[in-house]
Amino acid sequence: MNKKADGRDRREFLQSGFLGTAAASLAITSTSHVIAQSVPNATEPEVTNEVDVLVVGGGTAGHVAAIQAGRAGAKTLIVERGSQLGGTTTTGGVAFPGLFDAWGKQVIAGIGWELVRESVELDGGKLPNFAKVPQRHWQNQVYTNQFLYAILAEEKCAQAGVEIAYYEFPQSVTKVDNGWQVDCVGFGTQRRVRCKQIIDCTGGAEVVGMLGFERLREEERQPGSYLFMLGKEHEPGRNQIHRLYVHGADSTNSRTATRANMTGRQSILDRVRKENKRLMHLQPETGFRESFRIQGETLITVNDYTSGRIFDDAISYAFYPVDLHTKTGVKPKPLKPGKVPTIPLSALIPKGSRNIIVAGRCVSSDRLANSGLRVQASCMGMGQAAGVAATLAAKSDTTPLEVPLEEIHALLRDHGQIIPEKA
User: Fold this and answer.
1) Is residue 20 part of a domain?
2) Residue 140 maps to a domain
3) Same-domain status, 113 and 80
4) Using CA atoms, how far apart are residues 359 and 384, in angstroms rounded to an integer?
5) What does each C-alpha distance from 80 to 60, 225, 249, 368 come to in angstroms?
6) Do residues 253 and 302 both lie within one domain?
7) Could you tell me whether strands 46-56 and 189-200 are parallel, antiparallel, or unpaired per DSSP bridges?
């Protein structure tokens, strides 16, 4: 046989074998396909939206607020600077949102609970028995698959007619005759939103700050937590992740958040090298516990919280120990038996404002009360109430605090929420 021909045949055989193997491997790893719908005028940088309700921030409170507003008939847009909904539960990785029960009965339900319950059921997980009073509060936490939760929240927004704008954030907010003009920026996108009502769910009341309303914050802040898993597989919805305290974590702006994230990641990398264990899971960013809070029309004090005060304009329950994290750890102070705090509508309204409402950990409260109010179930309850109040205000051309409380309560009940009642 001709040696030259033999060499060529051998090369062709090897190449075809390699390509065949690569193609087979590709076929195994890429067996499903989906086509994204085209975005109208995608190459145009300028976009305009006219909506009833603009929700800024798609975290724990924000996605619930948006779903509620959409279900109640408001044309709703949610602007989220990240890539998914859920905030602390998903991006932060604290996928055990609580608490939804107190002293043997459920006290927070509605849209947030609907999402938690469905994500657990879809994942084949287990729900706690709320009729049983646990010895320690964390025993009734609900283990949730954070990945399922994020996409379920997105699906429910779509079903409610809510438009989502990821990777965008407001740059300016201007008062206009019929509400607000909000100019947002994302990469390749400049979005102008005209809306009747704003729901600020940014965690640190960032829109409220842009408008110049008073915000509260101490010099010292609780540490953030960076969640990860070393040495063993993380099973979403089944176990908790390892936690690293990031002291000095500050979510004030992109620079301070960058510093917190890089500090946490470097510490985890150092630990990998020191312990010689595989890094099996890493959340994309730090979970922040504390930032700015609004000065609202009502300020919830720790005495209001621990005494279980039922405010005249209460719109949701809250339940969690006073839970202030420090450099030496945390020693929760459980609530006394039978005590269930409430959240008033007026604590969601920046003092002296109109046509804007907040929900989430930026609720008007002192530092100790906020350490209990900031947890996910309570924030979900606030978000749903804010969604109702903003929707009714938009429909009536008024401001949330002037909407009759009985109308807010009635619509919340229609959508499955539990309303505080005086004894």
Assistant:
1) no
2) yes
3) yes
4) 9
5) 12, 21, 21, 28
6) no
7) parallel
Choose among 409, 249, 188: nearest CA to 316.
409
3 state SS of 222: coil
Total of domains in the chain: 2
The reply to whether 313 and 359 lie within a common domain is yes
Query: Does 208 share its domain with 235?
Result: no
Q: Cβ(164)–Cβ(157) under 8 Å?
A: yes
Cα–Cα distance, 366 to 295 (Å, whole number):
10
Residue type, 193: V
Q: By the 8 A CB rule, do 163 and 18 touch?
A: no
Q: Looking at the predicted structure, is the pLDDT value of residue 146 above 90?
A: yes
Residue 145, φ and ψ in degrees, nearest 5:
-75, 105
Q: Considering Cα of 131, then 136, then 137, then 142, what sign does the dihedral take?
A: negative
Cα separation of 131 and 105, whole Å? 6
Question: Tell me, what CATH number does 335's domain have?
Answer: 3.50.50.60
Q: Is residue 181 part of a domain?
A: yes
Interval 227-237 mean pLDDT: 96
Q: Is 302 helix (H, G, I), strand (E, B) or coil?
A: helix
| Residue 104 is assigned to a structural domain of this protein | yes
Query: Which domain range does residue 244 map to?
Result: 224-282
Q: What's this model's pTM, rounded to 2 decimal places? A: 0.91
**Main-chain dihedrals φ then ψ at residue 49, nearest 5 degrees:** -125, 140
Give the residues across from 243 on adjacent strands. Answer: 227
Q: pLDDT tens digits for 242-257?
A: 999 999 999 999 999 9
Q: Which amino acid makes up residue 223?
A: P
373's tokens: 């109010």
The dihedral sign for the CA sequence 343, 344, 349, 350: negative
